[in-house]
Amino acid sequence: MKAIKYLVIGGAIVLTGKYLLSLNRAQKKIVIVATGKRGKISAQGISIVIRYNIKNPTKARMTMTPPLIKLSLNGTLIGTSNMQMNDIPADVRDKTGKIIIRAFNETGNIEASVFIPWLNLLTVGGDLIKRFKSTDPKDQITVEVETISQVYSMIGNFPHEETLSIKL
Fold this sequence. Notes:
The protein is an alpha+beta fold. The chain has 3 helices and 10 strands.
């Protein structure tokens, strides 16, 4: 009887360890791929539409808060997203509004809008307003996109941050 008790406890420890290792790998391997395009231009500023796809190449299933998206130009913050205004497809959204990241799967395109006031662009460089309004491919601007979110699993949660560059 005592041997069975130790086998059950040992098995539980092995399974828990395996799951924690899987989560640790997932934390390092989750990838957010983002693209962006210019949205509406108004007298107040320009709206940028960011589409992102979360890829999970591991066997861990988890959920993630919609990320806060920060746009920077030459190291200067020019705009941030509204975390409540993400367009998350129904098949990857749970009832609390978190993004469901299934094992060995992708979420598909999730959209977020970032508004950049003209005043923010003036502080970085005066010609940027003209380049943002232009449709000429030579006038594309490279912007750093930083995503910050919280990932939740059965065992616990951890922060996830990623920075990449996109052309607008």
